[in-house]
Amino acid sequence: MAVYFDHRIEAPESSAVPSQLTWHSALPVLAVASSIPATGGNVDLYLQQGEYVESCHVERQHQPTVLRWHPTKPVLALGWENGEVVLLTHPSGDQTVLPSTHAACITLLEWSSSGSRLVSGDQTGALAVWKVDARGRLHGNHLVKHEYNKPLTCCIFRPASPGDDVAMLARASVGGDESALDMFSWKGAPLKMGPQEGLVFYVSTVDGKVHCVDEHCKTSTLLSVDGSIKKLFYLEKREALAVITETLMLSQYTLGSEGGAQEFMKVKLSSKSGQNVDIVWTDNSLLITATGEQTIRVWDLEQDDNYILSLDETLGFERGEMINCVSYCAGKEILAAGTSHGRIALWRMVVQPGRSKDDTKAQWKLQTPTEIQGNVTQLQWGSSLNLLAANNSNTVLILCEHVMSAHFSQQVAAVQLTPTQLSITQFSSGVNLALQSDIHIKGVCVTKDSVTLWNGKQVTVYELSGTVLRNTGSFPCDSHVVAVHGENLYTVEPSRVQIRTPQGTVKQLLTFSKAEGNPVLLSVCQSYLAVGTDTAHIRVFDLSRRDAKAHCSAKNLADQIANLGALRSVKCNANGSQVSILISQVNGRPDHKVYFYDVEMDTVTHFDFFIGRPSSGISNPDDSERQQFQGTELGGRCPVSHFWDESEPRLFVCETVPISSESSSSSYLDMVDVSVVTLFCTQEHGLLLQDCYPKPAGLQALLALDVPYYYLSCKPGERDSGLTEVSTTTSTPPHQTQPSRGMPAQFPPMVSRRALRDFVGLENCEKATRDAMLNFSFYLTIGDMDEAFKSIKLIKSKAVWENMARMCVKTCRLDVARVCLGNMGNARAAKALKEAEAEPEPEAQVAMLAIQLGMLEDAEKLYKSCHRYDLLNNFYQASGQWQQALETAEIHDRIHLRTTYYSYAKYLESMGDKTLALAYYENSDTHRAEVPRMLQDDTASLEIYVNKMKDKNIYKWWAQYLESQSDMDSALHFYECAQDYLSLVRVHCYMGNIQKASEIANDTGDRAASYHLARHYEGHDDIKQAVHFYTRAQAYNNAIRLCKENGLDDQLMNLALLSNPEDMMEAACYYEEKGAHMDRAVALYHKAGYVSKALELAFATQQFSALQLIAEDLNENSDPALLARCSDFFIKHSQYEKAVELLVAAKKYHQALELCVTQNLTITEELAERMTVTDSKDLSEEARKEVLESIADCCMRQGNYHLATKKYTQAGNKLKAMRALLKSGDTEKIVFFANVCRQKELFIMAANYLQSLDWRQNPEILKTIIGFYTKGRAPDLLAGFYEACAQVEIDDYQNYEKALDALMEAAKCLSKVKDSTGQQEVRVADLQHKITLIKKFVHARRLYAEDPGEAVRLCEALLEDPELDPAVRIGDAFGFLVEHHCQQGNFQMAYRKLEELQKLLPSQNVRYYVSQASLEALQKEMGIPMDRGDHRLNVKEDDEVEEDLNLS
Fold this sequence. Notes:
single chain; alpha+beta; 5-stranded antiparallel beta sheet; 46 helices; 63 strands; 38% helix
């Protein structure tokens, strides 16, 4: 907690009433403007403690109106009532008057972000822009002047967007880069910004207009609102402009890239408007207003929310106290408000664990107010985060924040309450005292006999004796730190430590060399003094003798610790062997390590709270302790204070906060997430974690560690209910004379003590037990169980053993816990621990131990750590923490959610809260039984609940209850609501309403109701109705029974068919025994599945129609003899198809096939498949193939070639299968089958078949034929096919070239044929002769183009060969000659050759060999008549047709 020291400014006597004040943004310099309406005004500058700067006094005959500091330089711009603008420089006092530009009262002055521009504006609307150099000096005349003709009210500069380097550093900082984060710290090196400062600004006028002036000083109207503009704010996140008018109308505008403004929000701020409205805008988009009311209004523009902050009378505020002004410090997140009664209210923004800063409503915490008297009209936070200036209408006070001093030593504690008041607690006597001082207390140090105060300029010493405080000395001293040991005081000055008497006399000097630096830190523990210097050196002095002597040489920590900036705190232990150090890094941020200097070993080690581990090289504890390290959640923290035990040199305690909060010097005191960590520190074992627990919310800060207690300061007005307290008395002893300085405190003690974990229950033990417990704790921590038991073996106290069992919970040592429980004699806990061993998780076992020892918080944490939420749920229920149990069940243990609801409902019922119990019974889905049970004694409430729930089960319960009370009419109503038709029918039958019961049963069809009604009718001998309702109830056996007993044979048949096979069988026996309706008996036997019995009865009674029906259900699973008998029956009655099916079912395939052949029955594919035997158990493989071939043969005879192919294939006879396919003529399947079977014979058969197709027109068939002959290895057949191809080329196309190629291929094929008969040689010779003749004819035709005569001679020579035809057709040779002679014009010779052709081939048409053109030329030249040619042509065509027919 912090207090504020108030310093009144040292204003000169001539100063008037202060009217304005403003701090410099970077320097602790305050400017105050004062005014006297009659004589004028003046402006003065003051330093942080109110010191007056005489050189900087400005006085005019007019009133000062505006004060604005340069953002970086100590230059103040002053605006006056007469239009004068003056630049005042601190500390020289130089004044620079701006050239006369304004003739009216100055209303605004504004600097750009870096101070290179200054804007001035006046009451007439004149605005000037001035340029200022880097030193803050005016640069010539104004750059531009604009006239707006209306009074100017506000001006803001638009900030420039950050550069790339800043954006990159920001991303790196968020990602965890500490070096990048350090660059943003104001204590580090200045960050180089990418872009230049923003020079665009916005200026507003009283008529509601906002003008934009760009970087070239060109002005344009941006927007206009209704009313005078009071404030302008720029929202950087949204790049928007916020405008607030005098009537508190807030408008927000988005600013376009081209200069336009678009309104996106407009709202009226619900507050009292007027001239005294104080408005503050924060970086996180909070708008805060103070309008002279009792509250502050806060608008969160990002969350679109608003709320109020009120004063709390319990903290010292008065009823009716008004808030006049506000100021917000972003660095400390503190909101300050000045009141009409001279108080300054402070709200601190506190981040709760698990909540974000967006949750602003619950974050503002009101602090104890600071009183300055008067009426506070103006507040402003200074450049330093600790300075606050306040104007109380009479003068200005500068409030300097100071962390409240506190100290504990030798069972005496002192805590500062106000700047001049202390609370002193003596724990040895239980006395509380209050000490009022004459000086502002900046530090306090206590011993069992004295209290020492200082303020940096003076030291005062009080003697403490019982309840008496007596001033024993006061002397001036500039030391900012003081330590006390015995009768000696230790103060510092440059290069030395002074040892003084309580009256200030210097007894001894402890000097430090220049390298060792100036001492700045002092700490005393027992008889040792630790000193830290500004050059990071430490020294330890032994104070046990008359004179202090050096205990060790100076140690330079800068050589041992990297990145060391300065020492923050130095403490030594009780025997001077260890010194603990907290440091600040070079960038000014606190280090997250605690360093330990071992005086004897001259080594430095550390414990890193960022990772939660000691430094490498220190021996770590065993596995259990390693788990403890991980479980304490020490990671991500930073130490803020540290202490050694005053008597135990091994025991060290440290207070830590999360890493994000350590930069604020005092804010951690108000945080919730503060941990107190205790360590053992020894040479042999290094640093060992002994305990870690969160600081209770009601406590302020750790003061000291003195076994068996921690001592902590309390927050004002708060107490820690969970503390183990030793109550202190404040009563004044009788007849005690009270000195003026000390008086019994009239307020609660400010210091509480909490027992260490090991000493709970042993707070008042003797020293031997205390030492034994410390040793036990130490050895248990290092895992040395032998030494641990040695240290406590002589202790017989059950409390000691219980405490050790508690320690076993912390260290998870169940083996030790069992011994402790045995010594305690706690059989119940031992039994529970043994039963818990069945749990697989060690944490769950330890949690049970913690429960038995009453350590419920530890048990809860353990269950959570091992994720045993089922056990945690049971724990919450057993401990009565029902809300936590419900939350756990709803989030983590949903499998037990309904059980938890039920248990909670039972608990609420036992507590008498039936209304809430009812709701949880409903949640557990047990309300249908539990709620009526719970409310059975309160029938009125139960009836209301029944009518409200509209649940059928509850309706039924209520109806049954009413029936038991003989209220039949109401019972019938609720049975009807519950749709319980059985109960309706039952009640109606009971009441004699049989007709109504029948209607209900018939309308609803409810089986239970129908059965009950049938029983009723049967009891009253109404058989017909009984059978009807038995039938509706599907109780067919009862209906059948009644039909048989009463001879209702017609209904019996229908009922039996609806019933099960047993009832059918019973009815069939009934019909058979009766000898009538045998057809019904057969049908029922058949329906019941007794086919043999049905057939037997059908044959016996010659019921052929029934046989037909039965035969339809016969299949291969039926009795073969039965099937054979039925088939014979159908053959006799000429129903051959049915007989075949039965023979097949009986697996008499040959008989079935024989019947198909004799009766010419078509074998369908389905029938063929049924005759295809797949199981070798039924037939042998040979018999199976024989059956398949028989089926195929039959299919062949019937023309079903595809099916025959399939069966031949299944029988393995692929040859017959191919023959069947060939008969089907299915070319595609023939080709497919041949390719699949890949047999020579099949390939040849397929190729032969394909030759019968039109392969001349289909090249694919041609290729397939060649391929099949090749695969079938039949070169002779392939040669014949090539010869046929050659003949086709000659006959159809006269293409002797292709024919020659084909014959060549045929010759190749014949050469591969192996033949021993000699016929092949003759065939090859004929083929070669034919090839020779064709080659000659082809040669002659080709030669004709070059040598026609030779070609003709070769052709005539060919004609002389008697074997020319059929190799070369004679007609083609003669046609060649006729064509030649016609071309030569020798028509006589041509005609002669034509005549020869006609003699050789009298039956053929010569036009087939001679072209039409040549014939026409011959006709023309020789005069041959056309009719003859036509007649010959006709004969030729007829003969050709006949020839083709003969050939085919």
